[in-house]
Amino acid sequence: MAGGMEILQEVLRGLPPGRAIDVASGQGGFAGAMAGRSEDADIVVAADLKPGFLTGTVPAAMDARMLAFRDGTFSVAGISNSLHHLPYPLEVLGEMARVLRSGGKIVVREMFRGGDQLPSQETHNLMHDWWGAVDRSMGVVHHPVYTLEELRTLLRSTVFQDWEFREFEVIGDPFHPDVIDRIESAWNTYMERAAGNEELMERGREVHRHFLSHGFSGARALVACAGKP
Known about the structure:
This protein is α/β, with parallel strands linked by helices. It is 38% helix and 23% strand.
């Protein structure tokens, strides 16, 4: 399996020109990557309940299950590390299909758990599953991360055809001070949210011990691309 961001950039460069939409865009990082995919790239709409803003993108506040665009508006639709945050992922994928023109492309980037991952990558999966458990205890939708096979099965159940699946990873220094500071900050935030729930707090301590021993690297991810009939 090839590593680094080259795979993702290669996939993005292969997307058709024209308007694009990044669904459940968060702070807009993936929308920004789509905006820079080629010189022919048109505007990229960053659609989210609370969208962020990056140069080259147009933030749009909306529900991912009810995109406020006509059928066939976009040439490209993307979603990044958000499927496991959605209560109804198939509905969102169906809505993305609706706003795509015939022959348009969908691109999905999603981390996955399981498989032969490094201990530092397992930190990401363990930490993320704990974050999700804390969020769910507060009524926030945050499902466990998909396995690779679960993710492929989900995507193949949509109207999109001829899926191309590629795995990638970005491995830096798992003990880099910036990485340690960022994860410690997130861990402290979630320990505060878990306060009073001893089971969740103990689970957090176990995850933290793994983190201190192995550091933190981003989990492996799948980038998938398919066309709309």
